[in-house]
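Review box. Two proteins, two foldings.
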Amino acid sequence: MTRVLPTLFALALAAGCGAKPDAAPKDADPPPAPPPPATAAPEPVYRGPLEPLALEFGKAGTAARDKYDGKVVEVTAPLMYFGRSVGGLDSDLAIHLRGHPTESGLVMPVWCNLPAPRLRDDARMKTIGYGQTVTVRATVRSASGYNLTDTTVVSVGPPVAAPVTLRDIEAELRKKGSDITRTDRRDLGRFKDAGVLVRVTVAAPGPETKGDRTTFPVVYAGDGQGFRVEVVSTDVLDDADKADLRALKAGDSALVLAHVAVPAGFGPLTLDGGRLLKAPPPGLTAPPESK
């Protein structure tokens, strides 16, 4: 009996080692498929200044559209202003970049549409000013003219706005003997291609809003004719900025980033595309109050 037990134990052990594992249930889910590899963003077919590309569209027409439509480009140009999108959704906004000059000397802007949150959430856009260099990556859409869509801001150059007073602006315009109430937009001197940072006092009756544009007059004793500050109030500004703008009243001091402009050929001098700031943009100092 003593010899039988070890033999039985060995047989049982051998039988256990040779046992087959239970078959997997027939209704078991298959393992998940691996995720597809990430698609790399398309490389720009053009990378460089915006003006040559805009000129190519102006001259080549259909050939340029066939070459670039739907393609990604990365372009650099000075900012002209913000505005509503062209051919985009109501929730889209646009950066208007300087395109190419026409025969009359005026510059055609190029619209760069982008989703409104992408613009609002970009801290660099809070204090960017007229004439400041911007590099964007976007897709060319030429079905209704020439514009860029699905824009991403790649980089923003240093500020170029001049901290000045209204008297500085008047003195510059009078170098050519200009009547500042009848100023040609091509006679703006050093303010033609760069913005200005001006601190002004709001005059009565205070802000007036029409559509997406808010205007308020300013106190200026130097000349007293034709000066007003126009502040654009669109979706570019968030609700807090809009509230600050519309809360202005006569006698308040306002720090405005804008550019010197003449609304239509000849007319009253305007600080156009004005943006109300709480502090100067990085790298600039606040100018003294204009009187």
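Next protein.
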Amino acid sequence: MSARFIEAVSNARRVRRRAWLAAVALALLAPPVLADRASDAPEARDASLPLPARPASHADALARWRDAQDMSAWAGAYFEYDMARALALSESERHAGRAPAITEPARFFEQPRGVCVDLARFGLETLQVIAPQTRPRYLMIEFDPLTLQGRVLRRHWLVVYEQGGQLFFTADSKRPGAVAGPYPDLASFIADYAAYRDRGIVAHREADSLHKQARATARQHRLPAPP
């Protein structure tokens, strides 16, 4: 094998290595791909983060978890969004009387897959057991309507609770591993959330129940139309 051939092979390898390093550098410098903020599906999870310990059962979780951070760490690691279920729970299907029931917390723990209202129910009923002093309750946000595959989607559910005189927000399918706060009042959070989701919010209300009769006693706020 001639020295000239060996040198040519070596040069080719150096060129390929430089090209690979350049590609890696470009990948590192490239801006991250943003998730669709109009969707209720979660932002992409950082796969490099270690998974938290998974309790053996829902009862075990209720015995071990102490606060919203414990519950949110689990949800952020294991919650999966179900788009087919989102369509089944759309305004269109609810008005037609075809919407399925909201998943019970014990069942949701065993298979943490669903939509915003499933996670919100799990979050609320979990906090009612592990941290009742925080007065957890539902927050329903009504967005400008979005039509997907012929179905109207507008409502989004999460949980609001109190701590130290401030408001915190959790069990949000868009960012299931997060606890947002502290906020001095609900209006401050709503303004931030509308900007984060890049979607107009036309109304919101707090409620202790998902049932329709809660509307009579829920604190509801309808935002004024833009000028």
